[in-house]
Predict the 3D structure of the following.
Amino acid sequence: MKFGGTSVGSAQRIKNLVPLINKGEQKIVVLSAMSGTTNLLVDISVSLYSKDLLKLKQQIDELDQRYKKVIDELFSKKDSIISANELLAEHLNFINLFTLDLFTANEEKAILAQGELLSTALLHLYMIEQNISSVLMPALEFMRIDESEEPEVLFIKKMISKTMEQFGDENLFITQGYICRNSFGEIDNLKRGGSDYTATLIGAAVNAAEIQIWTDIDGLHNNDPRIVEKTFAVTELSFDEAAELAYFGAKILHPTCVLPAKKENIPVRLLNTMQPTATGTIISNKPAPDRITAIAAKDNLTAIKIKSARMLLAYGFLRAVFEVFERYKTPIDMISTSEVAVSLTIDNDKHLEEIIGELEQFGLVEVDKNQTIICIVGTFGADKQGYASRIFDSLKNIPIRMISYGGSENNISLLVNSDLKKKALVSLNKGLF
Ligand code: ADP
Ligand code: ASP
Ligand code: MG
């Protein structure tokens, strides 16, 4: 069971978790940092980089006050209050220590880990106060990524089963989402929103009956509820549909968190902590019915077009183009080709200049920043008809930069300028649902 930031966002919310997690069967509970904490830790890191000590002090004081309030409201016994305040002081001292030394990306990751370390320690202390037995299982001992930042699945599995065997008859294990160690043994993380990924990696490692992701909404909606009105929860999704939606921007799921569950065929249930009896969404290997399921959008993409007469009737051209991206370890999201040109999008433009420099050997290169992929997920097999016309009819007033259809049975993607994202999502909502 994974609980996101809002689900542990206040003393009352933490108290509300107890009846959900303290029920019969053995469970592993994964917690995010309390909402707002990771963002504040990001801001603290910015102050540490720039050595803005005045600002840093204000930010650490803010963290201190927020958590003092939580401690105040959460605990009632003197011993727990003392332990919780000591714990808070330890974490704040840890952050303060970084003012003394050079601040680098590694230290930043250690700072970012403090939120999950705090939330799990507080829940564990609260369980002790409530006389409910639980084990705090440190993620930094079992969650590890390799040099390519991929999770080390076998290591994770081995280490978790070792800890669980050690506490054979224990029913409740509590651990941190998001944080891990890298191949150098340093503290690292699974990127923002990574607690979902922690949960599915653990669920897959222990071959759980089900992975539950508890959040602040009643499941995955058919469109981005932050942008579009009158969206609704989709009750059932296939792994493939959910994976595409997560990868293409549905914030409710971390981009790659569906993959471990799909691989081990473990159903993932999305549930609402504010409304625990709502149906939510179940993601499983059950094939999706014929339909348009949902829409998601992914921002901050850069479109690159390479136009070259050399491409006409030539082989090896695309390979040469792709090799440029491979050399700079830059994944391509979307691609669209014609006889004499190829357009593609990238998310990570760290090496954009070098990439353009090399691509210019092939022909004319055009770059458009600020692009958004709109991804329509559904069942679009080759035998299906009518879906494309409904989509384009809905978007008849919106300029489209790229189209990708037929690459995946589950996904039709369009690229638009980010200024048109809202209009595109709203128009599609009207036209498709
Ligand atoms: P948590 O902190 O629990 O991980 P997140 O904020 O990461 O929660 O994800 C939940 C939020 O995702 C929702 O509150 C909602 O605003 C947003 N969201 C974006 N797209 C979708 C979608 N398609 N369905 C449901 N929620 C979505
Ligand atoms: N706390 C981390 C974040 O805010 C991880 C998570 O919430 O999933 O990104
Ligand atoms: Mg999240």
Q: What stands out?
A: The longest helix spans residues 53-74. The first strand starts at residue 2 and ends at 3. The chain has a mean pLDDT of 96. Residues 4-5, 32-33, 38, 115, 177-178, 192-195 surround aspartic acid (ligand 2) (CB under 6 Å).
